Amino acid sequence: MRSLPQRVSPGQAAWWPRTTSTVTLYFSDGRFFVPVSRRMTRNADLPRATLQALIDGPTARSGLKNPVPEGVEILSFDLREGVAHIDLSSAFHDEPSRTHAAETAIVETMTALPGVASVSLSVDGQSVVDSANRTPLLYYASANGLVAAPVSATTPRAALTTYLSGPPDRALTGLPSDVRLLSDEYDPAGGSLSLNLSYTPSVRTLALEQPERMRMVLLGLITSLTEFSSVRTVRLDFEGQTRLGLGQCSDLLRTPQPRPELLNDERLLER
């Protein structure tokens, strides 16, 4: 697909082909961030439109919450040299207990877009965050899809170590606690990370009894590691197993997997 320029005049925009892109909006379930995938028209206004979609919040039927306080308006938006310069209205400070979560949701949502490396956020012209980069997140399976939790790890290996230590809440599912990293290999030229993990009875049981949860766990691990720009694909191997369970995860094993385009399809989250 031909790349579209970031800026066009209003008159030109009407002549663009109506293509779409999948964006990821970071809402909340009350405890953790929930990445929501939404299809949106791809044009020069996509970054601002994505921010507006986040501010507008999730659909009522999803049961999710918006970390951004109600009533916030975009006063100005400008994308320059990979930095999204955002100025919001004073309603952003109406609920101080939600400020940090709102900042994180905005930075994570915006830096998930191609061409956005960081965010400079201000409120009524007063700087709040200056050139904030993406905070790596770890993605775990829950009863309602993938949820994400910030991690202090600054490298893929550190993130993997944290991931293998278990999820931060008993209601979430990661790889079973007896799984060990047997070997790993990184190809810097292609950005491919290969992991050989132990195939344990717990893995077999999870895959057989909860195949969809197992699949979500693997997708969560791939998403967690591709949070880092140095990792473009992840290859998962459980001691040579070509499938887990009855084969529902076979397509995710032993071949390099890019970051999933859909994390939680918004259409499937509605209750």
What report would you give on this structure?
This protein has 271 residues and is an alpha+beta fold. The protein contains 7 helices and 12 strands. The protein has helices at residues 10-13, 46-56, 99-111, 156-164, 201-209, 211-225, 266-269, and strands at residues 19-28, 33-42, 74-80, 83-88, 118-123, 126-133, 137-142, 145-150, 181-187, 192-197, 233-238, 257-258. The strands form 4 sheets. The chain has a 4-stranded mixed beta sheet, with helices on one face. A 4-stranded mixed beta sheet has the order 9-10-11-12, with helices on one face. Helix 2 (46-56) runs antiparallel to helix 3. The longest helix has 15 residues, at 211-225. Residues 1-17 have low confidence and may be disordered.
Give the key terms.
271 residues, alpha+beta, four-stranded mixed sheet, 30% strand, globular
What order do the helices and strands come in, and which of them pair?
Layout: H1 10-13, E1 19-28, E2 33-42, H2 46-56, E3 74-80, E4 83-88, H3 99-111, E5 118-123, E6 126-133, E7 137-142, E8 145-150, H4 156-164, E9 181-187, E10 192-197, H5 201-209, H6 211-225, E11 233-238, E12 257-258, H7 266-269
Parallel strand pairs: 4-5, 10-11
Antiparallel strand pairs: 1-2, 3-4, 5-6, 7-8, 9-10, 11-12
Helix pairs in contact: 2-3, 5-6
Low-confidence stretches: 1-17
Mind summarizing the main beta sheet?
A: 4 strands, mixed
Strand content: 25-35%
State the end-to-end distance.
35 Å
Looking at the structure, what is the overall shape? globular
What is the radius of gyration computed over CA atoms, rounded to a whole number of angstroms? 20 Å
Helix content: 10-25%
For the largest sheet, list the strands in their spatial order: 3-4-5-6
Can you count the beta strands? Answer: 12
Task: List the total number of helices.
Answer: 7
Question: What order do the helices and strands follow?
Answer: HEEHEEHEEEEHEEHHEEH
